[in-house]
Each structure stands twice: as C-alpha cells, then as structure tokens.
Design goal:
This protein has 566 residues and is mainly alpha-helical. It folds into 3 domains: 2-196, Clc chloride channel, CATH 1.10.3080.10; 211-398, Orthogonal Bundle (Clc chloride channel); 415-546, CBS-domain (Roll). It contains 24 helices and 7 strands. The strands form 2 sheets. It has a 4-stranded mixed beta sheet. It has a 3-stranded antiparallel beta sheet with strand order 2-3-4. α14 (342-358) crosses α15. The protein starts with a helix and ends with a helix. Residues 557-566 have low confidence and may be disordered.
Length: 566
Amino acid sequence: MKNFFRLFILPSAIGIIGGLSAILMRELIKGSKYAFALIPASKTNEAYIVIIPILFVISAFIINTVMEGSVNPTIDSVARSIVLKKGRLDYKKGIGSVVLTAVNIGFGLPVGREGPIAKLGGSLTSLFLNFVRIEGANIPLLVSCGVSSALAATFNAPIAAIIFGLEIILGRLSFDVIIPLSISSAIGTAISRYFLGNYPAFFVPKLSYNLALLFLVPLFSFLFAAVVYAFEAVFRLSTDIFKKLDMSWFSKALIGGFLVGVLLFLFPSAASLGYKQVSMLFFFDFSYRQAFVLGLVKLIALAITFASGMFGGIFAPSIFGGAFMGYAIGGFLHQFIPSVDPLSVALIGTASITASISSAPFRSTLIVVELAQNYHMILPLIMGSVMTMYFSHLFEEKIHYARSVMQKGFDITNERYVNELKKMRITNFIDSDIPALKKEDVLKDVMFILMKSSSSYFAVVEDDKLVGVLSFRDIRLIGEFGNPNMRVVDVMTHNPSFLMLNSNGLDVFEFLSKIDVDFIPVVNNPKDKRYLGMLNVNSFLKFASFLYFKDSLSSNTERNNYQAHP
C-alpha cells in the first residue's frame, strides 16, 4: 500500500498542481492582454516603442529588488536547480517569475511561457512536499513530476513531458521513475484538457515526406545550425556590449526595451508567443521572404530581451523561429529542387532549431509532433533534431556532456569553474598500486589478488603497454560460460578508453559522462600507450567538489557585493 501511494496517489496530487499551474499561467496571460488593450495607444504599433521600454524597466526593478536578482527561469535553469539543489525550489520566485512572464507576453514581448510554468509547477510541488512531509520521499523525482505535469498541461503533450523528466532532469529510467512521471503528466494533461479543451497549440495540415527529403535532412540541419549560431552570436554580442558599457540594470532595461520595441513596431507579427502566426504560416499566409525576415527578427528580439535580463521562456520563440526560418529555407530550395515541400521543411525546422537551442532533441521532437499532431513526420523530425544539435555543437564547440555531469552535481556551464578544471592536472590522483594484469593470466589464479584490491576495474598490460581493461562484470562471465580456466584475454575489453598524463579535469568529466567507473587507466600518450596507473575517480571528485564549492562561494560573494553596490 505504501508503494501504491508513492507511485500513484502522490504523483496524481502533483499532477493536479501542475495542471492548475498551467491554467493559472494562461489566465494571467489573458488578463495581461486585456490590460494591454485598455491602454488607448495600444491600438497602434507605435505603442511598442513607448510601452516595451517602460515594461522592461518595471520588470528589471522587480527582478533586481523584490526578487533579489533572480535569474530567468528557463527549463534548463529549473532542471539545474532540481538536480543541484535536490528539488528545493523557491515558490515565491516561482510565482513572481510566472506573473512577470505573463505580463511580458500579454504586452507583446517575444518570449515563451514554458520556463516560468516549469518553475511554478516545480516550486508549488516543493512547497506541497514540505507541507505533507512524506518520509523517505524522493524529492527531486517528485519535483520533476511537478515540472513535467505543468509542461504536459501547457503543451497538451504528455509523452514529451515524460521524456523531458527523463532526458533533462533525472537522466535515468526505472520502474520507480517512469510510473510517477507518467501519472503526474497524464493527470496534468487531463486537467488542462478539461478546462481548456483538447486543441493543438498551432494548426498544421497533415504532412508527409519521401525518401528524397530524408537525404536532404543533413543539408537542412546544417542551415538550421547556422541559424542557431547566429541567434547565440547576437545574444553574446548584446550581453558583451551591456557588460563593456558597465550599464546599471535601469539603463540596460531601458535601451534593451527600446530596441525590442522598435523591432516589434516594425514587425508586429513577431510579438508575443506567435502560435497564431505559426498556424497562418502553414496555410501560406506569408511569403518566403517575409518568413525569413520575421524568423530573424523574432530570434534577434529574443536575444536582446534575454541579454537585457528579462524573464520568459525560449521554447515558443524557438518554435516560431524554427517554423519561419524552415519555411524560408524550404522555399528557397524548392526553386532548385521542386520535390522539396516548404511546409515539411518548416515543421522539421520547428523541431530542429528548438532542439539545438535547448540541447534536448527527443523532448523537442515529441513536443512538436504532439503540438502539430503530425506523427507521420517523426522520422525526419528526429533526424533533423539530432543532426542540427550535432552541427550546432561543432560550430560553438559546446560542452556536449554538460547535462550528464550536472546529474553528478557539478555545473560545468560556469565558465570560471571550467577554467579551473582545465588547469587541473590529474597526476595527483593516479594510483600506481592497483595490480595490472597480463592477457594470459587465468582468472581463477588471480581472483584473490583482485578481491583484495580497492578497485573493481583493472588494466591489462603487455610490454608496459595498455591493451585492455578487466572489470568484475567481465569476471562474472565465468559463470555464464561455465569455464573455470578462462583467461583474462577471453573476457577483457580490448582497446579501452583511457586518459593521458596531460589530461585535465574537464577530460575526466568527459570520460565519466560516457562510462561510470571508479578508476580510469592513464597512459603517457595515445601512440605508445605506456601504462602509468589508474586514476582514482573518487579522489578526483573530492578535489573537484572542493573547487566547485570555492568557485560557488566566490561567485555568490561577488553577486552580493554587486547587488549591494551596483
């Protein structure tokens, strides 16, 4: 009965919280739009030039004073908080971020709603769990259920919300994880459908593809990755300019608001969430040139908005930018390859650009499929998503394993901490006392030596050269094959992965993102592969934790000093 409560009843209650969070957000956006319509000047596009800068300044004041410099609650930042803070989210900041984002969207800011809704669903779940105080509860898992249910209700996409919990936050799949996530997401979606109806976020005609389109997906993906690179370049440029000019939050908000206001005055179709415009796009209401310009404007306005410190989600603008840029790219290629359907490329772009910006290809693909209700297109969508993310990582040289490392409790998106890891040398963590094995050793003859060792992972060496590794998992194969005279070479892993003597802390984290072990073989260089010993992962993680603690403490001190003396 205790398991039934933990796996079904509690997630159902959390699903209700998530569903109500999504409804609350929609009502707030509706009320904000109504308030915006009451302003006499709002009937003309010129109003954006005045209203948006004022909105930026008010939002910046609330963020920097009332909310004490809280960061924009994107989905990634919410996931980071759940992992690193073990599910302890601030419900006051969650509610504040939702209210600010709802007002921003209602007044036309080109941002999304999913990040703040995720923060609200997780924060209210965290508050609920503090109130009920359930013994032995897996708090990060249950808070993830709150986030997933809120996203499921928001997008009417329960499957994608489950994948979000698995792919972004938890990073693992088991009986105890999949059931609570499924129940909470299903309940959240049911509540949303009951109150809001079962409608897609935007309307897309039934599309199909042929094999020729699949062969062109790598080309589409390369171009989509270039679009993402341009978006991130504008964001970095905007941020750097604000930093170099040493602006106060007031000046940054005023200038950023003015720039975004001018863009929305010139291109009002880029305002707010933009789902209506996406539906219009799929029914040919825009030319290819208009689509390209609007997609570009949306992403530039979003970059300036975030660089100015405003709150809002990135998913809806990514969908808008991906659809419009995909339609433009498809239209251009259609002139040379008539078999290319611009609408199909637009849908591929919707998933691909969203996946690349969020580094979450499975979630992005499934959300777009569920939003558009075009399940037949899932193959080109998933191919485009993973390939666009791959090309984007090549362009940016991003740390593609950052999320895997975050699930171990380390945030390597922090540039200063990454620099500390790059300076770290691994020589102090090499244990040369762990016995090395020979290929011809008979396992039963060396078993007791291995049992006495502190390691469960052993190097296999021939002429001082690393030729393989042996783990106790390999040793268990003796029982499977029933041969007591098996040699090390019969079960070892040949040509194993290794670290080099000049490897740094970041290299160790990259290794651990692929293979979760306690010891890693170290060689002098990749050519000779002369074996030097085994790196003790636990010792390394202890020192990496100390560096992380020191860096986090320094960052918090600097942030507090800045807030006290802006």
